Amino acid sequence: STRCMSPAQYFCSGEYQAKDWHHYGLAAPVYTHFTSPIRRYADVCVHRLLAAAIGVSPLPVFLSSKSHLHDLAANMNRRH
């Protein structure tokens, strides 16, 4: 029989040790996934954070607060 995957869990990387960032099913040590940023708010946030991390665009002010990012991740985990 087949099993459904567990839903995604969003988190701030600074709240967990790097060893906990893995993707169990893919056996990947560091993993992120996103789709088109016009589809889901979680993907918009990931796109903006990655763009800032690689120097393509500045970090939006609303994503610069660690406590705000924590609250966003917790809300996305409840809603998705």
Query: What is the β-strand count?
Result: 0
Computed CA radius of gyration, to the nearest angstrom: 14 Å
The mean pLDDT is 79
* Helix and strand composition category: mainly alpha
Overall morphology: globular
Uncertain runs are: none
Largest sheet: none
Order of helices and strands: HH
| Alpha plus pi helix count | 2
Distance between the termini: 25 Å
Residue share in β-strands = under 5%
- Helical content class: 25-40%
Topology of helices and strands:
Elements: H1 41-53, H2 66-79
Short description:
This protein is mainly alpha-helical. The chain is built from 2 helices and no strands.
Features:
single chain; mainly alpha; 34% helix; globular
General description of the model:
With 80 residues, the chain is an all-alpha fold. The chain is built from 2 helices and no strands. The chain has helices at residues 41-53, 66-79.
